[in-house]
Amino acid sequence: MNVLLVIMNYNINFRFFWVFFLLFFSCTQKEKDKSFVEGFEILILKNSKVNENIEMKLNSSKDKIKVYSYTFLGTLEVRQKKYLLLYKTILSGYKSPQLNNYLIFYDTEYNKIGYYYMQGIDMPVLKGNVLIFSNMSSDCKQIQTVDFTDEIPEQIFIPCNNDEGDYINLIK
């Protein structure tokens, strides 16, 4: 498996590269893939600036595409506890690859709290403790704001065309 790491507007220091190198080569079995990906996510959270995009391409065969793209959205505070938000996009497949989007929550000790699977929903914007969802690239053209001051909601409704829309559920 070949790995190509592409970083947009990011200066890689030697420590970042070395940790990535050790994480990648310490994972040789499928059950370790999850810990590799989470380790990479934590590395991004520790070293990224807000709204910085980091992309990792995995080439396992000539025809297969697998691209992980991460954006650190920032920190929000829920009941005086801070959480780090990471937006992840995975492009995976062969001739017609699928795109999957996730909004991932970590606590400040880098424990994964949960995530929202956001198929077809654009990357939200974090302003303070409010996430702003806007599907301006789709036919919806509606905006939904969600305040996280009191809780991380178990379910969020993203409206489209008045009463229609999508529910996204928090997966723990």
List keywords for this structure.
single chain; 172 residues; alpha+beta; 8-stranded antiparallel sheet; 3-stranded antiparallel sheet; globular
Can you put this structure into words, describing what you see?
There is one protein chain. The chain has two helices and eleven strands. By secondary structure, it is of the alpha+beta class. It has one domain (2-171). The strands form two sheets. The protein has an eight-stranded antiparallel sheet with strand order 1-2-3-4-5-6-11-10, covered by helices on one side. A three-stranded antiparallel sheet has the order 7-8-9, with no helix packed on it. A hairpin with a 2-residue loop joins strand 7 and strand 8. Helix 1 packs antiparallel against helix 2. The two termini are 30 Å apart.
Query: What general outline do the C-alpha atoms trace?
Result: globular
Q: Helix and strand string, N-terminal first?
A: EHHEEEEEEEEEE
Q: Order of strands across the widest beta sheet?
A: 1-2-3-4-5-6-11-10
Mean pLDDT score: 82
Report low-confidence residues grouped into runs of 5 or more.
1-15, 25-31
**Largest sheet, strands/sense/barrel:** 8 strands, antiparallel
The separation of the N and C termini measures 30 Å
Number of helices: 2
Radius of gyration: 17 Å
- Proportion of β residues? over 45%
Total strands? 11
Helix content: 10-25%
Structural class: alpha+beta
Give the tally of structural domains: 1
